[in-house]
Structures are given as structure tokens and as C-alpha cells.
Amino acid sequence: MTGLLICAALGVEVRAIRRGLPSPHLGTRVIATGLGLRRAGRAAARLGGREAVAVVGFGGAVHESLRPGDVLVASEVRFRGRVHPCPSAPLLAGELARAGLPVRVGPLVTSGHVVMGAERRRLAAEGAYAVDMETGPLARAAEGRPLAAVRVIVDTPRAPLLSPGTLARGMAARRTLALLGPVLTRWSAATGPRTVLLAAPRSFCAGVERAIEIVELALERYGPPVYVRKQIVHNLHVVEDLNRRGAVFVDELDEVPAGAVAIFSAHGVAPEVREEAARRDLRVVDATCPLVSKVHAEARRFASEGRLVLLIGHAGHEEAEGTLGEAGDSGVLVQTVEDVAALPPDRPVSYLMQTTLAEDEAAGIAAAIRDRFPEARGPRRNDICYATTNRQQAVRAIAEESDVVVVVGSANSSNSQRLVEVAAHHAPAHLVDDRGGIALDWLAGARTVGLTAGASAPPALVDDIVAALRGLGEVHVEERVIARETVQFSLPKEALS
């Protein structure tokens, strides 16, 4: 951290911000630049220092979606033909959202005059979200430093500046400004140079890539809508993207119209789901990961031998439900060593594993099964998939060198959760859906950040985080490669024909 300089045009804005700052606010300066381009330009010429710069105050919306009281965090500042990027905007916006503020991220335009009417519409058509009269010169002077621009919206196309209610909106905006101070100090504390250690492999595995491609091919072949039972893979961004393109995600097949296209997710399904699809004459495309299908085959084999089929896994996970369904009445879910002690002793035993488990956790339970049932039969090969194992080994390697580890993945992703657990043995570790989920406090004092992604998380999300961190200071990126993955799975004939 190099300190924080907060710039605001008006005295009322300065007082509101100072009122909200933690006391004492060492290392933080708040200055009044004066209203308009000329005064802001003079203030910019005197900027000096190497502090992080935050330009805050009231603003006018040009984008129709913004409402009075919304907080715009600028993704970039447009001024006199130049664009000044604010790469850390998603980090700051996420922090403001967690503080309970209605936040948007988008371009901010600095103008030399009050913008109204046709000009407002033109700026909106060019993608701008809001306009002010001071940020541009200050952003230009702050080039090379961490930069944030935050505007609390007072007027909008539907509630113009010269209209009844402006005073009340301004008073409300002043109260919001007072809430910005603590968040801006956390943003400043997170600034500084750092190293990012990338785990490799990370992000999509072959099974996830195959499942997503199956949905894309089904949309291309059959046209939307196509129906997907459960989430195709456990990632919010993947599901939202496919949903926008025409995939409809349902919990059960009774939500799918008779005769429609139904895709089974990568996690697999129980036999009764397949039977229901056949009864309802659904056109099924099976995206079950081939490694999950292998576990299903083992479950059927062990059950046919009259064995109790123990599945080491997690309750409620779709993969566990599908595998237990294949074992029928012989299937028993085992989640802990204590579960092993409660098993009946009078039947031959076999055991399998959910493919997304942490190796250490699963190995401990498997050892307890073998101790209690010396004749227990396990899988011919380790059920935990190669991608899960590789990502766990890779995150362990970076965690040993990191001050904090960030794992990209959704909360319902078992393999992503396991990455957090593995990393947490060596450093504080956190799971985020995307860059907006990173708490700035995690980064304060963290000079080395470990970064990876679960097997269902898009690789672009990792790139987004690196870009956002660059907005806080210089970033040196290193990659730790523990394996090269060349596995590819063929597509089912239903997706190709």
C-alpha cells in the first residue's frame, strides 16, 4: 500500500466522504478539486506523490438501466478521445455490493458541460453509463497508479438534473458517499506489487469440455430450446451462458415436454431417470463423463455379485445419486470414517469413490473400509479422475508458496471445494465464482497470490482475475506446471448424427 488520495469536486462531497472514513484515517487524504474541467485540471497538475487515486462524487446517468442512488464504478474513463482503464473496478464493485450498495460497472465519460437530451442519448448509444465533469483530467494525471472512479447517481434520463426531487436525491446520494470511505480504504490497502502463481492444470477438464460441446451441438442441430436435466456442469457462468443461447435447465424430467430433446448432465443419472425418459419418448443425449460411466459400470458389477456397494462420496451430489442408483438396493453412501463403523458386518463388501473427491479424504475412508472388511474389493483403478488429482496436486504446489490462494469455481462444484480444502492446509484459501467475489481484505499484505480454477470453471475467469489484480499494482505471473493433460473423449453418436 502506498496511501490513498480521494478527490471530490464539491465541499459537500468531501465532508460526506470524510465522515465515513475510519478514524484515524492514516495514509488517506481527501481533497476538493473544485467543480468542472478547469478546476479539476488545476488539481490534477498538483497531484504529486504515488498514492492510489480514487475520484468520487455525484454523477449523471446516461444508461437507461441506472437509477438515482445507484453507485457506478467506472470500468474506464473516457476523456477527450482517450480511454483510461480502471482494471480493478470489478474488485471494488464486489466489495461495495457486499456493503449493501446497488452497484453497476461501466464506462464513465468526462464532459466539460452538463449533458442533456440528444447528447445523453448519443453517449448511451456509444456504451457509456454515466457522465461527470472532473474525473478525466485526474485519471490522466494518475496514469501508472491504481485508479478508481466512483459516482453516485443523482440524475438520470427519466429524472433529469433540473427537475423536482433533485434536492432529495442529492441528500440521499450524500449519505451513500459516506459509505464509500471504508471500502475505498480497503481497496487502497490491497494495492501494491505482487506475484501471481498460476496452478497448472486448472480450469476445464476433458469431461467438462465434452459436456459443454454436447449442449452446443444439440442447440445447433435441434435448435432451441433443448432441455438439460440439472446443471450440465457445476458452474454458474457456464449455465448462464448456455441458458442465454437456448438451453433450459430443469431439476426433473417431468418439466420437459414430451418428445423434446433432453440432455443428461456430466454427473450422470440413475437408471430410473433413463426409464422415465424412455416412457416420455424424450430424445436423449447423454453427456455423462466417461469416467463417471466407468464408476457406474463398477457399481453394477459389484451389485450383481451380491456385494454391498459402498460409495465414498457426498450426499446430495448428482454423481453420487446416479452411482447409488446403479447399485440399487445394494448401494450405501459413506461420507466419513464413522459411517464405516456403522456398516453391517454380515455381507461381502466393495467400495467405489465419487470422482471429484480430495485424494487424502477418500484414501482415509477407503483404509477404514479395508481395516474393517479385509476382503473388501475396490475399483480396478482409482475412481478419482485424473483431472481432479492433477488440480489438487497443482494447487498444493502453489499454496506452499502463497500468502493467499483463490480458487475459481461455483459453490456447488465438489472438485472446486476440494481444491480449497487442499490449499487451506498451506495458506488461507477462498472459493469465488469470479473476480467480483474476491474480498479486498484477502489481498491486503498478500504479495504472492496463488490462483487456480476447478475443472468446471471457464479459463477466461482466471484471466479476468489477473487483469483485475493488475489494476491494484504491478503483477508478475508465474505458472507452476505439474502435469500436461492430453486426454480427449469422443462425443456420443446422438450429438453427431
TrEMBL record:
InterPro entries in alphabetical order: LytB/IspH, Nucleoside_phosphorylase_d, Nucleoside_phosphorylase_sf
Pathway noted in the entry: Isoprenoid biosynthesis; isopentenyl diphosphate biosynthesis via DXP pathway; isopentenyl diphosphate from 1-deoxy-D-xylulose 5-phosphate: step 6/6; Isoprenoid biosynthesis; dimethylallyl diphosphate biosynthesis; dimethylallyl diphosphate from (2E)-4-hydroxy-3-methylbutenyl diphosphate: step 1/1
Short name of any one Pfam family annotated for the protein: PNP_UDP_1
Catalysed reactions, semicolon-separated: isopentenyl diphosphate + 2 oxidized [2Fe-2S]-[ferredoxin] + H2O = (2E)-4-hydroxy-3-methylbut-2-enyl diphosphate + 2 reduced [2Fe-2S]-[ferredoxin] + 2 H(+); dimethylallyl diphosphate + 2 oxidized [2Fe-2S]-[ferredoxin] + H2O = (2E)-4-hydroxy-3-methylbut-2-enyl diphosphate + 2 reduced [2Fe-2S]-[ferredoxin] + 2 H(+)
GO aspect biological process, one term: dimethylallyl diphosphate biosynthetic process
Binding site for (2E)-4-hydroxy-3-methylbut-2-enyl diphosphate: 234, 267, 317, 355, 413-415, 456
One Gene Ontology molecular-function label: 4 iron, 4 sulfur cluster binding
Domain of life: Bacteria
Start and end residues of each Nucleoside phosphorylase domain: 33-156
Record flagged with keyword 4Fe-4S: yes
Co-factor: note: Binds 1 [4Fe-4S] cluster per subunit.
UniProt-listed PANTHER family: 4-HYDROXY-3-METHYLBUT-2-ENYL DIPHOSPHATE REDUCTASE (PTHR30426)
Protein name, UniProt field: 4-hydroxy-3-methylbut-2-enyl diphosphate reductase
Organism from which the protein derives: Nonomuraea phyllanthi
